[in-house]
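Please predict the structure of the following assembly.
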Amino acid sequence: MQHIVLKSYCDGLPKPTDFALEEIETPKPEDGQFLVRHIWASVDPGSRSRLSGRDSYTGAQALGEAMGGFNVGIVEASENSDWPVGKLVTCAGGWATHSIQTGRGFLAPIPKGLDLPLSYWIGVLGVPGLTGWFGLKRVGVFKPADRVLVTSAAGPVGATAGQLAKAGGARQVVGIAGSDEKCRWLIKEAGFDHAINYKTTGDLDAAISEAMPKGIDILFDNVGNTMVERCLPKMRLNGRIVVSGQVADYSLPLAERHGIQSTDVFITRRVRMEGLVVFDDARDFPDALTAMANMIAKGELQLKEERFDGLATMPDAFCGLFKGENFGRRVVKVGEE
Amino acid sequence: MQHIVLKSYCDGLPKPTDFALEEIETPKPEDGQFLVRHIWASVDPGSRSRLSGRDSYTGAQALGEAMGGFNVGIVEASENSDWPVGKLVTCAGGWATHSIQTGRGFLAPIPKGLDLPLSYWIGVLGVPGLTGWFGLKRVGVFKPADRVLVTSAAGPVGATAGQLAKAGGARQVVGIAGSDEKCRWLIKEAGFDHAINYKTTGDLDAAISEAMPKGIDILFDNVGNTMVERCLPKMRLNGRIVVSGQVADYSLPLAERHGIQSTDVFITRRVRMEGLVVFDDARDFPDALTAMANMIAKGELQLKEERFDGLATMPDAFCGLFKGENFGRRVVKVGEE
């Protein structure tokens, strides 16, 4: 089997040379374990926070250790009768062609009878889609008639959150993205009311104010402090800021991060700001997945994917996330179906 | 009657010369109105945010307009049968010896039969005490065994919040204050477990970490961004930051405010930060006041007051709040009982 390890700690933007592909012996499952052969693997922007060699609440990644991530795969050898050979699963197997699973942690069978691409289970039906769901509904306490602003809106988390808001009766859903192509997709395919290309709009503050003259009930943010500071003065009474991701901050040392200064708005507008890690909602995943699978089947939830081929492409696919290169969920085919 | 108006917009720290005392004709109540003769008047740090001549969500104060604030008073003339002459009330009458009330807005009769100083109704049983109560309980979602850090802890909001936490079974209540005398009072009278004098402690970060080695469940903050940034890395999983006041920020232009940078903690520790304005909880005031009055009667809730004498002292009393001069609730006697 092959896997990809962290070779050097990242300083600033991660580079493909920070990683190395290694050939190792395929492990054999011990009692209670099983071996999954991966078909799809994900690159996740949130992984960046573990790669600086500094203490991290989520656990710093050690040099030489295989990179974490999510997978769709098939059980290839098993010493666990609950997970027999041939079963399709989603799991946290990382940047690798295979992984040993114990039956615990992030792991779920892929239900049969749904005619969906397997890669969706690490996309709209995986961690990003679930983050959109629980971020909007539990943390954002979404209510019909809310005005919702989504950043990194063409990414899998943002696109899911925005479409769920629209389907749930939002009065207005506005997305911010980094290309005209993404903005067109948000409006024409994903049903957003309005989209702003932050790279060409000039004055982003003014563009948001113009698009949302009545203000923002929910800021669903995947960018970080700059965006929160920008939007705070536009928040409506009892507004909610969902801290879903911070892609602009991951590579910045603390001192270089944009500070959030306009915190008087927390009092004057009774704003609430809260972060999430979606695994806290694991108990409620089945209901959310059923609902989202139904929406996909009915064409109410669009997913944009960028497919890469081969494990060796993962460092490039990952590093591109921080330059805004991606358009939709980046998934990497690492084995045959 | 006399009242005090804003004479100049405040730039930085407010100065007594920014205000002027004026003699005006005592108004007569019209139909449905009544005239209250004030006995006590409050100075409130939150008023600072209205005095810069800039747009403010809470409504900028106009030059020449009487300063707002809270009072205990007695109805002296009435054209409203619900509020007869002789009734004792709390109201929002401002920096003045008298006010006309309409029966709406912040106004409540003072219950009879409680042997408490009248000034308490603009202190622990007024806006500051209620802010402590609802900040801790509704916004902070206080739970027994929480570890609570309170800033401006010897002030009326902080002291109430800390004592309520302790009475509610907090595992640990730590206060930050600006003198050894305040710290002694917090521990000996108010029952805090520990108190830190931020003016003499040297490394405040280290002092907090040493006092709370297991971290913070609730930061009840009256200071502003510096304190939030300082405490974010010490927040425990699912920690709550109650934005109750921002006394260090009120006089600072946006660009000079300390930014909150460590917002990665919002995700990694699932932190929630939320502001409050206590009037949102008005429906629940009676229950809170009954509970707090009972605690005071049983000696479970201490109140420290600084009493000033005469309306003319109000500008000095107010301006001193921003130098940390006050120890407890500043109340000004503006008329006889």
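Chain A has a mean pLDDT of 94. Helices of chain A lie at 127-139, 156-167, 180-188, 204-211, 225-231, 264-268, 285-297, 314-320.
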